Here is the input.
Amino acid sequence: MKKTLLILFAATLLALIVLFLYPSPVDSVAWNPPEAPELSGLTAVNDLLSSAELLGKGDFYGPEDVAIDQQGRIYAGTQDGFIKRILTDGSVETWVDTRGRPLGLHFDQNQNLVVCDAYKGLLSINPAGQINVLTTSVNGVPFGFVDDVDIASDGKIYFTDASSKWNQDNYKMDLLETRPYGQFLVYDPQNGSTTTLIDKMYFANGVALSQHEDFVLINETWHYRVVRYWLKGEKTGTHEIFIDNLPGFPDGISGNRNGRFWIALPTLRLATVDTMHPKPWLKNLSAKLPDLLKPQPIDYGFVLGLDEEGNIVTSLHDPSGSNLREITSVEEHEGYLYIGSLSNDRIGRYTLDQSHGIAR
Here is the structure.
């Protein structure tokens, strides 16, 4: 017994020595986050998403984003590199394999599915399933983590590169390092050019154009905020904070092109993360730990509705996360919200009429 305890003590001591002396994979900086807002008023906890219909349950592995084609088929990219679709009869089929990690999805005017693949770049997939690589770099620098996309009526494709340093498998390292490695870009199919519109973003994520395409919103996940980039008017080419200090980590964002934005929040704010942010040494230490010991999302379903002035107008919750959790995308289509997830095995479909008269 004594020998066993001595071995355990020696092993623990050795692990601690290695933990403290081994170089950290990140070089974190301090950040003082604002105090997390309470869930009250329009963000008060409800259980609206607990009754959402579940589509393709068990047939998906992390359907991170969702898109619907003209025939009503529902598409989602999965963690194992596939893009699957739910046919109008409810059956699920594997459509294409990008051999990467398809994230943001959006159909263009020709019904090509434009895909942000975290590893393969910005792709366009025609209705026959043929994959065309649009762009993989800007100014000669390869993308690190292509994330989300929206497409304007003139065909320009607005998209994000979440991190130039950390890839999708290591997104928590980007959180712990807390440096602005993200960027917001535009791809012009007319001349094949790729241009950076905003650089030095703290995990550039979801993208959504406004009703009149005079501005576009970009989620800045690690700083709990949404940035607005002006495309028209006196402020063209400038950007500003649209809404700040959100009650969770904003991931995907979409616009219904009728004055409403939907934000997906995969987890509520994490007190452990906010406590760590002012202490770089603690984040550097945390980065050395196994993934299971790093900060973990809370099992919770959370969606916010915003108007075009940046006001929260509604919120939808699944407090238990048993029906929908770790929500990363919300797409409005013909009276429904289609809801994707980074790690769940299903797509949610929520009827907007259930949400106490939310105007579409």
Observations:
- The radius of gyration is 21 Å.
- The first strand starts at residue 53 and ends at 55.
- The chain has one domain: 41-354.
- The chain has four helices and 26 strands.
